[in-house]
Amino acid sequence: MQVPRRIALTFDDGPSLETTARLVHLLACQSVTATFFVNAGRLARRPALRDVVGLARSFGHHIGSHGLTHRSLPSLDRKDIDDEVTRAEELLLGLLSEPKLFRPAFGSVDSRVRQCLHALGYRLVLWNVDPRDWDRACRDEQCIEKVILGVGQEDPSIVLFHDLVCRTPRLVEFSVHAIRAEFSAEFVPVSELPDDGNPGAFRPFG
After folding, report:
1. CA distances from 46 to 105, 174, 185 (A)
2. pLDDT for residue 3
């Protein structure tokens, strides 16, 4: 019997009132549980967005932190790194899933960032499949091809999408269909993947 590939779909930079809500309902139709890394600064500027994050959580999706200001953490001093993480957590109070997950902006990390996240009880999560949904020069079929290629080479796979990109729900729908047609696959939240100290290599395909 073929062992299913384990795939974690992840979404950065949101929430968006429209795109995130569309993704939540689309994923429900596909019976897929995903992980949303929330830019907490967006909640500070628009508190109504908390309801969208709450919707995602109510559908069983896991909620992680994407920080507060989307700055590259290695460019900051240690105090500002701490502030970026803790202030985001305050804004995400009652929304974060356990275990606490953090994805730094741009996937940028150094030893200080790792030490800070460890001290604050976070698991660092990067990715190993990047379809470049944000890149207008990358056509839909190219993005989907990157997903299939990446999932074929990485097991488990952590796929990076962005829920501020209008076409992302379409790409996710086609990608899920294509993955299921090509592989025996199990879609899981990141927290169900083994935490072996390697949070996912920064190796975008293509």
Report:
1. 20, 31, 37
2. 83
